[in-house]
From TrEMBL:
Cofactor requirements of the protein: pyridoxal 5'-phosphate
MF GO annotations: transaminase activity
This protein's UniProt keywords: Aminotransferase, Pyridoxal phosphate, Transferase
Organism ancestry: Bacteria, Bacillati, Bacillota, Bacilli, Bacillales
Protein name: PLP-dependent aspartate aminotransferase family protein
Top-level taxon of origin: Bacteria
Organism listed in the record: Pseudalkalibacillus berkeleyi
Gene3D superfamilies: Aspartate Aminotransferase, domain 1, Type I PLP-dependent aspartate aminotransferase-like (Major domain)
Similarity section: Belongs to the trans-sulfuration enzymes family.
Amino acid sequence: MEKFRFDSKAVHFNKKLKSESTSKAQPIYQTSAFKFSNLDELEGYFEGKSPHMYSRVSNPNTDDLGTGVAQLEGAPKGVATSSGISAILAGILAVAEHGDHIVACEDLYGGTYQLLAKELPTFGIEVSFVSFESKDSIRSAIKDNTVLLYSESITNPFLRVENLSTIVALGKEYNIKTMIDNTFATPYLMQPYLDGINIVAHSATKYIGGHSDITAGVIVGDQVLIEKAKKKVMNLGSNLSPFEAWLTCRGLKTLSVRMEKHIQNAQRLASYLSEHEGIKKVYYPEHASEKGNGAIVSILLGEDINPNTFSEKLDWIGVVPTLAGVETTISYPIGTSHRALPKSEQERMGITKSLIRISVGIEDYKDIEEAFQVALS
Ligand SMILES: *Cc1c(COP(=O)(O)O)cnc(C)c1O
């Protein structure tokens, strides 16, 4: 398995318990605990002789998801959690404690911003938000008690591709850990751990699950950090349920084929929209990876297009405050992900009423283009 390439690893990561090895598909271990035939066997669990005792601590399905994503990211270990946000929290708490300071990129996913700005200070962890576009602005925010640099590989909603080598270099220079949310890129496009980032987080709710039917998260990294993060997941009770993990693993197996189609469609839609006179600006990443630039496209509608009418005329393309499902959907940053930001912050970032974020699905491209053509006419 070790020598398998990306697409093969994605299909073959499940680790079966010995007793179930004849079932082709991985069973669902929908159980809160595991049975031992005697006290010695129970003791054996603590000596590492059997893998599972209690599902909040570990379970074959949740372990599968952590392992599967870790393999695709090229990292030694991973842990699955109840959501992307709880994965991010577990990763942060593996590094930072009361009295510590974090430097975070200022254009983060809205929910992550809430976690860092509102919740971490109640743990006694202080966060500075700065532009990550210049090395100097990151540098000037680093203090004696800074323990972590935090950003996203492709940012939301303007889809800036993060300069990971700058973050890795600063982390080494100041001896502080680095963490990247790789949700938009997925390991199919970017593998930040292999670039030297210490912890990589995912909202598996998005492309990894891929079908908009679960909420889940994963973080991967080295053995020591992920063991620590796993303790946090166990003690905070932010473990993922076996069934959700099983569904997410099923999604993971088709990540490559979905991403390929998502990306092809997005690339074509981005170039179609950038030529359209009704559109003022198209945001689509460049040079994210040799496999393409992802499947999220943001657009700024021209002044004479009413965003509400536009959304209504998109017909089968729904307004959905999430992304990365197989269906094409649009979302409205000012109304959802960036709603809670102060008006001044929205203005500074350029989050306006004309900004629409498109999550391009895997339908036939022509149907997607036609829907936009109709809505824009
Ligand atoms: C959705 C998302 C999250 C949060 O994940 P949940 O699964 O909703 O908790 C974090 N980061 C990014 C980039 C996201 O898109």
